[in-house]
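User: New here, please read:
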Amino acid sequence: MAVELINILDARDILSEAISGSDRVLLGLDFDGTLSPIVTDPAAARMSTENREFLQRICCNNKTDVAILSGRSLDDLRSKVDLDGVFLAGDHGLTIRNLDGSVFCPEGIKPHGDLLAQIEHIESLTSTIAGLYLEPKEFSLTVHYRQASIDTGEKLRPILKKIVEGTDFQLQSGRMCWEINPIIRWNKGDAYNWVRNHLTSEKENLCQLYVGDDRTDENVFAVIPSEGFAIQVMSDEKLKSSDANYKLDDQAEVALLLEIIEQQLNDRN
């Protein structure tokens, strides 16, 4: 039986004490479903002005690092976030942009030219299924079905599974989408660890927070230490279990959390 998580907004004193008692804060967040609400058209997703302003002020705190980890391509994520002083990880962590603008990719990863060549093939096989949106990225491909009928996900599974058979790619389920990702021992959790290892100072007494709504965020929750804050944004996608230790009831509460974090950082200074 899944343990009922405490809403982090109801544990404000615990969070405030952890921030005030730390030397540095690392705040990680997903984008879609966390900083931005889930929308029917993925290209139309936008971070609210409120969330952007909170993040901008948090980034200006010299004792805080912010990392945004997303399934979007790095270029797409960068255009959506459009903030300086932020670590960015696109393609579920397969491409990471450091604060100096340099980009890291894990060893062994390679562009998916063979897969891109099959996009027309995928489109022809799925032409009778209305409401699909294909999102090619540098190292992976996402097939969105948010605009399709409710049973579309299961209809797509055998079609896409056959396409990846015998390739260096695997089929993974996402939130109203199928992800075709390279078979590699690297995920969002590894990307978060990379960011943590590349902080410039005060790594010992570090207050760590990560906020996400997707099953891929579970890989990050799993590497957050027990004294940290792995915060699941609840959604209509029910997970059987989670490595999160706190929750937010919906995406709208993310702004309230960012406000608390900003206030506590200001009080500490």
